Amino acid sequence: VEGAWAEDGKGESIWDQYGHQGHVYKNQTADVACDSYHKTEYDVYLLRGLRPKIYKFSISWPRIFADGTKDSLNPQGVSYYNKLIDSLLDSNIEPMVTLFHWDLPQTLQDLGGWQNESIISAFAEYASFCFDTFGDRVKFWITFHEPWVISYAGYGTGQHPPGIVDPGIASYQVAHVILKAHALAWHVYNSHYRPKQHGKVGIVLNSDWAEPKNPRSVEDIRAAERYLNFMLGWFAHPIFVNGDYPDVLKSQIQHMNQQCSSQIAKLPTFTEEEKRLVNGTADFFGLSHYTSRLISASANHTCIPSYDNIGGFSPQVDPSWPQTAAPWIYVVPWGLRRLLQFVSKDYTGSRIPIYIAENGAPVDDGSDFINDTMRMDYYRLYINEVLKAVKLDAVDVQMYVARSLIDGFEGAAGYSQRFGLHHVNFDDANRQRTPKESAYFFSTVIENNGFPDKFLEEHLPKHVV
């Protein structure tokens, strides 16, 4: 949303370069985007209209450190985030800050990016600076937003920068490095900042719900279990269970390598010291969720490296599920409740809370952008499933964050998918914002902290939405 891609000392990010090279829908770029860099006060004004308890946003690493290191500190970038944080607090809105939401400084990518282990200390230095600079006012920190997407789309399919297609080797190598970088940043906060700042640090993991296509088929049930472990357990198990990858993930990769004439996947190993470093490094379970998949066991084993082939599963959808403007998002509300049950059972229990840190659906650029009835229905149905999980299943959900305040630059999809509660006119030099019907709907959900006299006729616990 920020724009100002090269203003006031900001360095180039991998998404800046990716857009400038023409890899994004209709050659669109984030050069100006929503121009939020110059519209801080107005965006906070829009937030005040919704009256939320919290606002989740990300810091752009190259806006703070232009080349990714402290030697390139950019005071004007620091001032921008200070202004945003102070404006939020003046409006009684808690800032929730993500340190890394995919926009790596290009200079660090030139050194190998997340494939080079030296980036672990660089990230820890950047995180420590942010904790030191903003932590007196920020009490909720996210180290990485959706590391699965970074590993899968950036290094597996090549759909995101740096555009590397290596699902069997690079994807797992990058995830390994990110997990260690996250853990080190958590320990930096825990040792040096928590005693005075008393904040919370976690990570946001994205996951579909995996429903066995045939619930009476043992093969499909096991395939669905593998799907969840290849998507969520890949990161959640090391952090929330025992510092290591799930046995299901390790055994499946070993099985596929044995079935093939050459190694098609390589899962790195943690040392015992690294297991201790990674295990327990989260004060909450950040969950990003949008949709579900029907999973069946792969009928044909192939040795061509791909996410599905390595995992031995075949994801599908039910033709009755409504599709949104994003081709990968189908409306399956009950999947969120089942995923919350799974997370609570396998990872959190009553030990740490679950924060739903991202949920929503887009409309397409050409639709009636004000009367976004489908999005309102999506929110209503999905939030109601959260309500059921809390009230009927005793799942400890303490936060729900809607995506998003305003339309923005959506990666490779550019501006074709509109996730915002407020429409942004990207053809207007002033980037005019207009509230959609979903903004009014969501403001009533916030006001009532749930649904008044509908659905289960109960409200979410205080301060969830």
TrEMBL record:
- Write the signal peptide boundaries: none
Q: Does the keyword Glycoprotein apply?
A: yes
What is the similarity comment for this entry? Answer: Belongs to the glycosyl hydrolase 1 family.
SUPFAM superfamilies xref list:
(Trans)glycosidases (SSF51445)
Give GO terms for biological process. Answer: carbohydrate metabolic process
Query: Where is coiled-coil annotated?
Result: none
Q: Which InterPro entries match?
A: GH, Glyco_hydro_1
Subunit note: Homodimer.
Entry keywords, A to Z:
Glycoprotein, Glycosidase, Hydrolase
KW DNA repair (keyword) present:
no
Name it: Lactase
Molecular-function annotations in GO = hydrolase activity, hydrolyzing O-glycosyl compounds
Matching Pfam families: Glyco_hydro_1
Superkingdom of this protein's organism = Eukaryota
Q: Which gene encodes it?
A: LCT
